[in-house]
Design brief:
Elements: E1 10-15, E2 20-29, E3 35-37, H1 45-54, E4 60-64, E5 69-73, E6 83-93, E7 114-120, E8 131-137, H2 149-155, E9 161-165, E10 178-183, E11 192-194, E12 214-217, H3 224-232, E13 239-245, E14 251-252, E15 257-258, E16 261-263, H4 292-295, E17 316-322, E18 332-335
Antiparallel strand pairs: 1-2, 2-6, 3-5, 4-5, 4-6, 7-8, 9-10, 10-11, 12-18, 13-17, 14-15, 16-18
Bound molecules: 2-acetamido-2-deoxy-beta-D-glucopyranose (NAG) (2 copies).
One 2-acetamido-2-deoxy-beta-D-glucopyranose is lined by residues 141, 143.
InterPro entries: TSP1_rpt, TSP1_rpt_sf
Keywords: Signal
Signal peptide: 1-16
Length: 340
């Protein structure tokens, strides 16, 4: 008996009719069975490959040599790595490295089921023209509710867009629906809730000498209670803060006081004229008075923890992300040492 098993062998097979090329990987199978192709005359690996070549969405097929069954994978997952499986043959349309999928289109509907498509700039040895693969998207209901954008992600929202969310506070109180921007691409695999405010711009500050004498109260686009509820229901949160300075110290070494600081959420409920204690840190790190450059040891002079504390005649900048969820959002920004 002559048993010949080809393992890990890939051969190119030219099919005259369609001018398509295929690679065959023996004893291998890609995940996802796909559509089963049957023929009254029976199916061989050749006819399976041929069928795949004439189905516009097929670029890989699984053929079970043992039961002579052919499955066409229409999911567009041509690149998936095959796993070892005896008697199966992975039939791939053209060479993987010749496929170059364009990004998915946006879903045709925002809810209750649309479709999205993608095409590939076709392989140089594949003359069938652009191949398009199609899949269903946004199959959740239009009346569904979620508490933050990651809730939409879980439901299957793919495209970044404004969306309604209904936050629930940490005490379990259901808040009214608000519209936010859901960024579904920024952080791979997570739905990010973006909350805007009126401080997303540079403001020139001059003539405020006493520490904290300049104040900027941040107004968010949605109610403060909603902002807090969204932060509490999120796993990570960050807010950018930047102070560009020229001869304006953050930490006044003489009187041992912060000139420039922000205040955390606990100060939001203090009366307007009441003293708002600064957060003890400038960028959300628990180290006192430490800016981003002080943590990463990249300050422009080695004896300071904030670039602005160099306090000379050059424009300098301290900036970074506050990541302490319990402190966010930033309620107000205060500054001093800008008097002369
Ligand atoms: C969605 O809500 C609207 C208005 O409340 C209602 O008329 C409609 O029947 C709801 N649709 C579904 C699918 O529940
Ligand atoms: C918020 O700021 C207050 C006042 O400085 C401080 O006591 C408190 O610890 C801060 N909260 C958080 C979570 O950092």
């Amino acid at each position: 008996m002559n048993v010949c098993i080809l393992i890990f062998a890939a051969i190119k097979l030219a099919l005259g009719l369609s001018d398509n090329y295929f690679s065959m990987e023996y004893n291998k199978r890609v995940s996802g069975d796909g559509y089963q192709y049957k023929s009254v005359n029976g199916v061989t690996e050749i006819s399976c490959a041929y069928k795949c070549s004439v189905e516009i969405n097929c670029c890989v097929a699984n053929f079970d040599a043992h039961s002579q069954m052919c499955y066409l994978d229409m999911s567009g997952s041509c690149y998936s790595a095959p796993s070892h499986e005896k008697s199966w043959i992975t039939i791939r349309r053209a060479r993987e490295d010749l496929f170059n999928w364009a990004p998915w289109s946006r879903c045709s509907k925002t809810c209750e089921g649309g479709i999205r498509t993608r095409s590939h700039q076709h392989a140089t040895i594949d003359n069938t023209g652009d191949v398009t693969s199609v899949e269903n998207c946004h199959i959740f209901g239009c009346n569904d509710t979620v508490i933050n954008c990651n809730g939409w992600k879980t439901k299957g929202l793919l495209d970044s867009q404004t969306a309604l969310i209904e936050p629930i506070t940490s005490n379990g109180i259901q808040l009214q629906a608000v519209e936010v921007y859901c960024d579904m691409e920024m952080e791979n695999g997570v739905g990010v809730t973006v909350i805007d405010h009126d401080g997303e711009r540079d403001v020139y500050v001059h003539g405020y000498e006493p520490h904290g004498s300049y104040s900027f109260i941040v107004t968010y686009d949605i109610p403060f209670e909603h902002v807090v509820a969204i932060i509490d229901s999120s796993q990570f949160c960050r807010q950018f803060v930047r102070w560009k300075c020229k001869g304006a110290q953050i930490w006044d070494i003489g009187i041992q006081k912060l000139n420039t600081y922000w205040t955390n959420r606990s100060t939001a409920y203090l009366a307007t004229n009441e003293y708002k204690p600064p957060s003890e840190f400038f960028h959300g790190y628990e180290e006192r008075r430490t800016c981003e450059c002080g943590i990463s040891q990249t300050c422009q002079q080695s004896n300071v923890l904030c670039n602005c504390d160099i306090n000379d005649d050059s424009w300098r900048s301290d900036e970074g992300y506050v990541t302490n969820k319990d402190a966010l959002p930033i309620v107000a920004f205060f500054a001093g040492d800008t008097g002369n």
